[in-house]
Amino acid sequence: MHPALEAIRAAICGTTFQGDLFLVGGAVRDELLGLPVKNDFDLVTRQSAPNLAELLWEKKVSDIAPVTYPRFGTAMVRVQGIAIELVTARKESYSEESRKPDVEPATYLEDAQRRDFTVNTLMRDLDSWELQDPLGNGKADLETGILRTPLDPIATFHDDPLRMLRAVRFRWQLGFEPAPGLYEAIRKTRERLFIVSYERIRDELLKILSRETAPDALQDLLDLRLTDIIAPEFEAMVGVEQGNFHHLDVWDHTLLVMKSLWSVDTHDPTVHLILAALFHDVGKPLTRMVDAEGRTRFFGHDELGAEMTRKILRRWKLAERDIEPVRLLVRNHMRLGSATQFTKPAARRLLRDLGEYADDLLWLVEADSRSLRPGVRKLDLNPIREQLANVQAETPPEVLQSPLGGEEIMDFLHLEPGREVGKWKHFLTEKVLEGELQPGDKETAKTFLQTKSREQTDVDSAG
Asked: Is position 236 within any domain?
């Protein structure tokens, strides 16, 4: 038993909560499956969860004063640094317009019936650690690997439509098979997902995408037509043939690229990289054309895809600080394939533009290259990685910029604020990237400005 749970068990000894407090949900499920148990504990009692929270606070077991939610009969405490949810056993009823239930106290059986899946209803008595199976089929479903709802699945998904996404997540997270009728019920109730906020949908999607099974789960979401609601742009990728170096349509190629991210044992993809792989070709359906020679082209799909990525992730309510790295990777994913030689100036520009996400870009490009038609020569990124390492060793990315700031340029050239200043700053930055100007060398930068401005003046005078 986890030390935080041990502390709670000791605190309720001799109280009415002894023998009437159970650990329930994912912690019990994962323990029985032999999986690592996260520090994510839910405790249920037939008594008042807020009163239990007060007790734990009074006995100095909880690190914080209780945070209570009277409408739902729940409370949050923190024990030994771990947030633990306390729940009063309840039954729920839902309106047509909301997934927030009206609740009333209930038995443990009724509480189990209102939960999402039978494998999440198993309970351990916190006092005796005895396993309880209120429904009578939770343990059997866990042992046989069946994902089943406690009640009729249509009613379960109608009450809380987010459970449709959880069904797909748990299927692939646990390696279970959906019970007969489970996926059919999702198809019948799929439009209920419209009442769920994008914040809640986003959280489930990120959990789905964080696992190696993400491509399989995404295919389920597509087959169940949940992507119609989540991101209809994905539907447009299906059946878009690419020709040339590709053997799959845009959607299947995207899933293969995502699978490739996990094919390197030493590499653990970041959430930004996973999202970039999902969106890297989202702009292809709208840019597809066939040229005079019969070749399929997607001119500008990287630029359009970057803007579509921003739009979709904003719809999902991701923070801008998380959107920008994904947009940046999508915008640049074609960048390395067009270079015949990766020079030091090219390496400096890549580090300037991508910064800390340069490594993610290389992984994305490599996964994309490995997913081309069998027999197509794959892009060798080793020389690029070596060149980037050399440049990084010579010059930190943060100094790959103009030695002179805007005000310094205005003072030296006697300019007013405006676009002209930005043009000269860009000119100096390019000199740094080309290796003609050393980072931080202000005097040589002024010499370049003086020479270039005189040349421009002469040209203007001649004209």
From this structure: no
Amino acid at 211: R
Residue 362 is encoded by which pair of tokens? 């290389």
How far from the centroid of its chain's Cα atoms is residue 420's Cα? 40
224-236 pLDDT, tens digit per residue, is: 999 999 999 999 9
pLDDT digits (tens, 9 = 90+) for 428-458: 777 777 777 777 778 888 888 888 777 776 5
Residues 83 and 41 in one domain: yes
pTM over 0.85: no
**386 within a domain of the structure (yes/no):** yes
Tell me what the mean pLDDT of segment 362-388 comes to. Answer: 85
pLDDT classification of 338: cutoffs 50, 70, 90: low
Q: Which of 230, 253, 276 is the last residue of a domain?
A: 230
* CA–CA distances in Å: residue 343 to residues 159, 306, 331, 336: 59, 26, 21, 11
* Whether residues 413 and 393 fall in one domain: no
Summarize pLDDT for 414-427 with one digit per residue, the tens.
Answer: 878 878 877 877 77
1 shares a domain with 79: yes
Are the C-beta atoms of 356 and 346 separated by less than 8 Å? no
Domain assignment of residue 204, yes or no = yes
d(CA 196, CA 98): 8
Side-chain-side CA neighbours of residue 351 (13 Å): 27
Q: What is the DSSP code string of 333-380?
A: TTTTTT-SS--HHHHHHHHHHHGGGHHHHHHHHHHHHHTS-TTSPPP-
